[in-house]
Amino acid sequence: MRSGIDHSARDPKVRPQDDLFAHVNGGWVARTEIPADRGRYGSFDVLRESAEQQVRDIITSVAEGNPEPGTVARKVGDLYSSFMDEERIEQRGVEPLAPWFAAIDDVASPQDVVVLLGRFLRSGVDGLVHPIVNTDDRDSSRYVVYFEQAGIGLPDEAYYRDPQHESIRAAYPGHVARMLTLAGLYAGDAAAAAADRIVELETRIAASHWDQVSNRDAVKTYTLVDRAGLAELTPGIDWDAYLAAAQAPTTAFDQVIARQPDHLRSIAAALAEVDVATWQDWLRWRVVHALAAYLPGAIVEENFDFYGRTLSGVPQIRDRWKRGVGLVEDALGEAVGQLYVEKHFPPRAKERMVELVDNLVEAFRRDFLGLEWMHLETRREALAKLDAFTPKIGYPETWRDYSGLEVDADDLVGNVARATAFEVDRNLAKLGGPVDRDEWFMTPQMVNAYYNPGLNEIVFPAAILQPPFFDVDADDAVNYGGIGAVIGHEIGHGFDDQGSQFDGKGNLRNWWTDEDRVNFDGRAQRLIAQFNDLESRDAPGHKVNGALTVGENIGDLGGLTIGHAAYRISTEGGEAPVIDDLTGDQRFFIGWAQVWCGAAREAEAIRLLAIDPHAPMDLRANAVRNLSEFHEAFDVVEGDGMWVPEDERVRIF
């Protein structure tokens, strides 16, 4: 049997005992140039490019068949065509935005701003809050609306205050001014003055935004209010008028969960205190900013120049066909996904995955039964949660119905607005109804996976189930180190610092004894401290935020520990064969490290350190240093680069 290891990616000059990431991936990193249209590039991206090409082939094949009007196939083809028709887009200019600009011209009061933001909700233009429909964290049997903070144009509140982002902050007003000028809204000094007012307002809004670490806190971000409570949080904001403008049910906000109450208080004050003319400036910017990708080339280029080149160090915009595929994925993802599965996902891959998942769950079960620091009361709850896990593999059982979505091959901006309205209506329609436990939040062609605490489910789309994550014909050790550890990672999210606060039914509830919680939190704090001392090779001098990445780091640690235990279960206690001069345990850890093969541009690496809850790729690969099993597999000793003294190794599960 072949191992499934890509030996051409390795750097034999680096020992795994000193740097597993470089040993496994160093050759690939040395010879691979990050594509000009990407900020980072690695195993995930290679698979995403492959899936992207496969989806493009599906789209063009469907369109060439001249499907009947109104069919989902016709909608797929027409949506893609509307994006690819650059000549028509140039001819129309910013004319598709004229109705929005006219409505903004008519704004005369804070109440008018609120009404317009309700209309924005249906058009793909984000406002001051982003309403999201999801299961109630404290009652997973029902849907509720969450209010998420919004209203700024930079990636995060830290960009408006942190000294390390000063160069981005300095470049931002000029970008806003140029965009407003290209849209024909202002000229010369007037554009610069408007941009200054917009950035000043955004800076005020950002001051009330919670930081990334606070936003991870499931308890802190749960404030359930009724209509009276919402009115008390946001005096002066007429939410009935907002709902009417959004064509939403009048009862949609009868109860909402304010994720950041401070932000709601702040925007209510800002609406009352900031002059209407400044709000008009900001509204115009929100429209141009949100819809820039669907406008003439000069606007597209300026938008990319700031958000691509300046913010992430990416020199070249992605090919237009790739951006067109992305639009179709966003609007009609499951329609394309159904065809993708038929062509690219063999049934035996799903069968093998079921076996892997079963072994991972059994490994977690054995781990909990033998976990010395966990007491019986907590252990029972953990096992009950494990028993209630729902794995979803490949694709949804029921495909989404797109019959209500209207697509016009000659109206790109209109298509974007209608697709947004379709999704808004689909989500709002959930309120008051039964929870759809079969719904997927990723398409089958997405190279990713997720854990959803509200449904206590782990989800693995079809596109991730290929090398280096999973090879149906390869050695078990590499598969367990790849997709097995990823499965373990996603299950581990059910027991990370935030997921562990949800019970088996998906409800936010403390099911831990006080002593066990202290023990768990102590281990998590050690992991935070460990990663706070690390920096990625792609952004030298910039440290990881251990508190921001702790959930994913716990997931990685649990995935590795339990993935390795599941591999041992799969061998039924026997000794694995030596393949490619590597033992089974060595192949397991190499399988893990090659999943994280990749590199990032420095600017992008710095940006991700500020906003991404995942640690950099090289540090994820080298998280194995916490496992005694890794030290034993490669005979790592004191003085080796990967050596961690036994009493400093963090082990949670």
List keywords for this structure.
653 residues, alpha/beta, Collagenase (Catalytic Domain), Neutral endopeptidase, domain 2, 3-stranded mixed β-sheet, 9 strands, Peptidase_M13, Peptidase_M13_dom_2, metal ion binding, hydrolase, metalloendopeptidase activity
What structural class do the secondary elements suggest? alpha/beta
What is the first-to-last residue Cα distance?
32 Å
In CATH, the architecture of the domain at 7-33 and 346-388 and 466-648 is 3-Layer(aba) Sandwich
At CATH level 3, the topology of the domain at 7-33 and 346-388 and 466-648 is Collagenase (Catalytic Domain)
- As laid out across the biggest beta sheet, the strand order is 2-3-5-4
Strand content: 5-15%
Poorly predicted runs: none
Number of strands: 9
CATH class of the domain at 7-33 and 346-388 and 466-648: Alpha Beta
Helix run count: 25
Summarize the amount of helix as a percent range.
40-55%
- What kind of sheet is the major sheet? 4 strands, mixed
How would you portray this structure in words?
The protein has helices at 20-31, 43-64, 72-84, 86-92, 98-105, 110-120, 166-182, 188-207, 212-215, 227-233, 239-245, 261-273, 276-291, 297-312, 320-344, 347-370, 376-387, 412-428, 476-493, 514-532, 546-570, 584-595, 602-611, 617-621, 628-633; strands spanning 40-42, 129-136, 139-149, 224-226, 255-258, 390-394, 450-452, 457-461, 598-600. With 653 residues, it is α/β, with parallel strands linked by helices. Among the domains are: 7-33 and 346-388 and 466-648, Collagenase (Catalytic Domain), CATH 3.40.390; 94-294, Neutral endopeptidase, domain 2 (Orthogonal Bundle). A four-stranded mixed sheet has the order 2-3-5-4. Strands 6-8-7 form a three-stranded mixed sheet, covered by helices on one side. It has a two-stranded antiparallel ribbon with strand order 1-9. Helix 16 (347-370) crosses helix 19. It is globular, with a radius of gyration of 25 Å.
